[in-house]
Amino acid sequence: MDHFQLKNGVLHAEDIPLSQIAEEVGTPVYVYSRATLERHARVFREGLKDAGKVHLAFAVKANPNLAVLRILANQGYGADVVSGGELQRALAAGMKAEDIVFSGVGKSREELTLGLDQGIGQFNLESEEEGVMLAEIAASRGEKASATLRVNPDVDAGTHAKISTGKKENKFGVAIDVAPAIFARLSQLDGLDLRGVAVHIGSQLQSLDPLETCYARMGELVAQLRGAGHTVTHVDLGGGLGVPYKPEDNPPSPAEYGAMVARVTRDWDVTLMFEPGRVIAGNSGVMITRVIRIKPGLGSDFVIVDAAMNDLMRPAIYDAWHDFEAVEPSGETMTASIVGPICESSDIFAKERVVDRLETDDLGIFRTAGAYGATMANTYNSRPLVPEVLVDGDRYAVVAERIEPATIMAAEHVPDWLK
Ligand code: LLP
């Protein structure tokens, strides 16, 4: 459930007409709903009510906007970060260092050091080599870094290949069959407090089955590690729960997910950690765009909008579907391809789709754009970087400004020797 609904014939974010934001801030623009973010954060937590001791770390990569992170910090969420930049954002937004988990296959020496400097709660190690490096840095400072070993369970998540992470050919984690030996070696190192294991098999999962298979394997691994004399107090079960992008999508609910987790992990006696991203932020945001013009096409018309693949990359790179609706629907429909102005054929949001009828200058929205939307935007074709707005009841704020080409050019330099 989200708070982007029609009221008096106009789509609103909570109590604000989206047409008002489009007028005042311009388009394209992302709009987030505070009430929706808070609701999703609460529902995910409540889903895990029978799962014992739980630590929730929002996957910052899904939506790193500082205002969004602050809302989640206020909901008691920590952060799952994958770069020094995300770590700085989580701290700047008010997340507690001890609630921050540092994931990622390529943490540099500088990033590991930053994590130690800031006293973050846990490093999820993705290789023995990374563990050795972290242990060296921590030991040289007379410290012990809390860490888990990320395992690759070789499970097919059944999602898009580009967002699958838990098959043995993927770069993530260490293969589950060699995990006990690597765990044993790393646990000997002075600079590490290796306290558990972590896993994440992919994103936008549509079924609980691969997750259950994966978690069952993790349970066996925990038993095996304990059998070998290791102490295991933390298991990080990652993120990945899918959201509906189309009305007919029916991903498992947080309650169903939580019930499965509670059942599978009943005897583990650990703190369970989670890294949800999309399920919290996805349906908490939309992107508003304005029709530039309509151009006749061969099969159907092209609706050329002022948003492009640089603003919302998901359709171009994953063939992702985002529902498209008019901000002020007339009730009539049309079959059209929704495209942006960029000079690439992949700059297409919807191909020959039945959508609300739109004319030049009308406004439309792409739904489910709160996760992996603005954060993946760029300035290709020297377009501005898309701004972000947060709505809270009958007020709103610009929480990320539009960055114009002039600002970006100001950071570029033509060397004297070219003048
Ligand atoms: N934890 C780890 C270690 C991850 O790699 C990810 C996502 C998450 C948590 C959060 O997953 P979520 O709950 O959001 O599914 N750009 C792609 C998604 C990439 C996801 C990468 N990792 C997209 O737009 O679909």
TrEMBL record:
Sites of N6-(pyridoxal phosphate)lysine modification: K61
Organism: Parasphingorhabdus flavimaris
Sequence ranges assigned to domain Orn/DAP/Arg decarboxylase 2 C-terminal in this UniProt record: 30-370
Subunit structure, as described in the record: Homodimer.
PANTHER family: DIAMINOPIMELATE DECARBOXYLASE (PTHR43727), GROUP IV DECARBOXYLASE (PTHR43727:SF2)
Key words, A-Z: Amino-acid biosynthesis, Decarboxylase, Lyase, Lysine biosynthesis, Pyridoxal phosphate
Binding site for substrate: R278, R314, Y318, E344, Y372
UniProt pathway annotation: Amino-acid biosynthesis; L-lysine biosynthesis via DAP pathway; L-lysine from DL-2,6-diaminopimelate: step 1/1
InterPro entries hit by this protein: Ala_racemase/Decarboxylase_C (IPR009006), DAP_deCOOHase_LysA (IPR002986), De-COase2_C (IPR022643), De-COase2_CS (IPR022657), De-COase2_N (IPR022644), De-COase2_pyr-phos_BS (IPR022653), Orn/DAP/Arg_de-COase (IPR000183), PLP-binding_barrel (IPR029066)
Binding site for pyridoxal 5'-phosphate: G240, E275, P276, G277, R278, Y372
Protein name per UniProt: Diaminopimelate decarboxylase
Protein EC: 4.1.1.20
Its biological purpose: Specifically catalyzes the decarboxylation of meso-diaminopimelate (meso-DAP) to L-lysine.
Family recorded in the similarity comment: Belongs to the Orn/Lys/Arg decarboxylase class-II family. LysA subfamily.
Entry-linked Gene3D superfamilies: Alanine racemase, Lyase, Ornithine Decarboxylase, Chain A, domain 1
Orn/DAP/Arg decarboxylase 2 N-terminal domain residues: 35-281
Molecular functions per Gene Ontology: diaminopimelate decarboxylase activity
Catalytic activities: meso-2,6-diaminopimelate + H(+) = L-lysine + CO2
Cofactor(s) this protein cannot do without: pyridoxal 5'-phosphate
Class of the enzyme per the UniProt entry, highest EC level: lyase
NCBIfam families named in the record: lysA
